[in-house]
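Lecture notes, structural biology module. Today: joint structure prediction for complexes of three components.
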Amino acid sequence: MFKSNRSRRLAADILTYVVLCTLAAFCLGPMVWMFLTSLKPEADIVTSQMQYIPTHITFENYVAIWTQSNFPVLITNSLIVTTVTVAICVVTGTLAAYAFSRLVFRGRNNIMLGYLLIRMFPAVMMIIPLYVMMRTVGLVDSRFGLALAYTSFLLPLFVWMLKGFFDAAPKELESAARIDGSTRLGAMVRIVLPLARNGLVASSVFIAIAAWNEFIFALMLTTGQGSRTWPVGLQLMVGEFQLPWGVLAAGGILSILPVMLLFAVVQRAMVQGLTAGAIKG
Amino acid sequence: MRRVSMTSNSRRHPFSSLGEISETRYWVYLLLLPSLLLLFLVVAYPTIYGFVISVREMRLTRPGLNGWVGMKHYISMMSDRVFWISLKNTAIWVAAAVMIEMTLGFIAAVALNRNLPGTRLFGVLILLPYFLPNVVAGHMWALLLDPRLGVINDILVRLGFLSSYKAWFADPNTALAATILVEAWHGFPFFALLFLAGLKGIPEDLYKAAAVDGAGSFTKFKLITVPMLKTVITAAVILRVISLVNSPDLLLVLTGGGPGNSTQVLSLYAFQTAYRDFNFGYAGALSVVMFFILMVFATIYIRLSRITKE
Amino acid sequence: MATLSLKDVRKSYGSVQVLHGIDIELEDGGFLVLLGPSGCGKSTLLNIIAGLDETSSGDIVIGGRSVSNLPPKDRNIAMVFQSYALYPTMSVERNIGFGLEMRGTSVDRRREAVARAADMLQVTHLLDRKPANLSGGQRQRVAMGRAIVRDPDLFLFDEPLSNLDAKLRVEMRTEIKRLHERLGTSIVYVTHDQIEAMTLATKVAVMKGGYIQQLADPRTIYERPANMFVAGFIGSPAMNFLRGRLGRGKSGWQFMAKDICLNLGRSKEKLEEQEVILGVRPEEFKVVHHDIAAAFHGKIDVVEPTGPDTMLTSLIGGQSVIARVGPRFAGRYGDDVSFTVDPTSVNLFDPQTKLRITW
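The predicted structure, tokenised, for the full assembly:
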């Protein structure tokens, strides 16, 4: 079919770019369309003649979602829940990941397997008892309660991801520090944590995104304004107020903005940790 | 017994006593305790409690109804038409989504693995949908496929594939397929990510050796790529199956199980039973059944992870 | 500076015992090499001495003080690791001074001590750099600087030269020997390289399967190995093992096999007529041209000149033998060849127990 290796290679390269461009269009197209929609006035969206490029660019949808709904409150709630979730995971998960990575103890593999098995638990199965429990202790409709519920599936994920990064930091460095006069704690704080800093950031960002995006737990466990997060709020706005498409699109764009930003910053380390964790696990 | 040793040159420091503890064998328990305690509270206890709820009557709307009912929920499940529909839909939904995602993911991984200029950017772009919230992804696709203003309808009509706009999510014949498309869009980057990592782990020499031996592209693919990716493929499939079975988010946003249960799946059914009807007992029983279905996958999963352990 | 004694040190991981009752005494200022193939337990033993790993039973005494229950930081030891284990985020200066920093030494005294150590190892010009910007040999020097700066009771070296290329390895080996002679601190050194063991040690512990096979000075280890494992492990090319019989001849005991008749030259020793294995080092073979005096008769199989000498593989009565002969050896494949051997240089081993027969 092809005369030479060179033309065959060229054809393969062209095919590769065609495939990549198609996939990228498939991935990005919907997002671009949502973005374009968010810039159109409502009249241009519901028009019978499809408008591909907005003729009148407007930011009224963004103004509307921000000023005429409780979107700022929702975003604030989500920020708080996400921060608390990450804080709990970082404090408790870092210690556990360190123990799994560095110390040999009885039952180590079983406990690690247990952390992994939690992934198997249906969210729904956790939600019902958690709802009943939280109602008993008054944590329903509380931002802290929601964050606590998030740790049930994010903490194991965090521990596994971070363990991978700890494993990558040479053990001999720690031995050297201990011989140089550090305690185990000192070696962990001075040597291992600084080395695994990127991993710590990547793992934290990963669970931050997951907490930010979470919908089902939030839907069940929040009942009022006090703790409702943006995915729940946005969903309920659609149902209750027949939210116009443009405003909805603007809300969507606003809420994925932080995700995109965080992802862009630590994308490389996160991908590395995600694949390592998943393949090893 | 190991004793905590205090030496003359250990300085007074806020961490110094904690540091001394870190040299004893109690250290490991101290490290594990916080997370184990937390997970006991938010995972172990609720799980056990979940089993208990499934054999009780618990309806928040009717507080008077309370008490043990044994296997009642499980028995009524057997004659629950919606349960069987959900089970069937779950199987179709998961199998079809995984198949499409795997194919797309593999194509993406192979293309990215050729390391042509610009692939890093493409890699990031292709990964984006995976990090998009389900709520946004759902509404975004609802907009794209809208029966009145959906751009996809418009394109298909213009290209001549459709004679008029179609209500994809309202037609029982296309609703499930449409949700699978959305799920595939959302989930295929996960496969691309893992496959790419797997492909990068295959030594280049193997392909060179095969080429020297006269193997063509297809033979190389069949005899080197697929066997070398085996563990990655199985791990990815099982992880993805678990997350698909477990999360009703996207369907909740897109169709709510309708029209007429045509997109009802187990997780959504259980959630709605709890969230809408407040029938916690029956919802609990449904999720316990889901859990056991997943346990079948779990056993396979553990076996496979044993193989890949260092 | 201190003595080191290990008393019946045992270690098991679960049901797997990796060290079986290790007893070692090292004199003050001694240089102990733990030598053995990978998986023999030598690194575990070193980690136990360092306190990085716990013993299952037994005692470790450094300078008369039992340290078994002390964490590494309180044992007053220093260690050089195979991967050098330099802290990547710190400068060379801080790397070297880290041990002093941890012990609260004042900045001035620290700087002075670091400067002295850096001078001794010729790394003064590197003090401001980060480890990533150093070559392998430089990293090795910095790692050693970090060890000597604290003036510990005991140095531990864990295969310190195995990441270096051949030329640098010889250079650093000399450096370690010089350091030991200058500082006089006791050293425990783990390696699988028998040349390092021979050149550096005052005492060698050859280990295999968690047991010490022989503990002695290098000369004894080389000339009078306790068993066939030690004999085969030390020396390159390895000692030749020849199967044969021990019998009584006219002038005393004789080793006999096909095409071999070696007079051992002694008559009174308590030997028995039995099957034995004769161990001969390659350099003990002397080529002779008048057959009558020769003890070994064979045919040349392979001739390999290495420069300073020639390795000569011959077949003697069906047994293959490697001899190290002079560089100007002129023989070819298929030629007849005869050797003599100084009977005092050979060793006899029991084929069943593999132990050396003393005589």
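Point to remember: Residues 61-280 of chain A form a domain with the MetI-like fold fold (CATH 1.10.3720.10).
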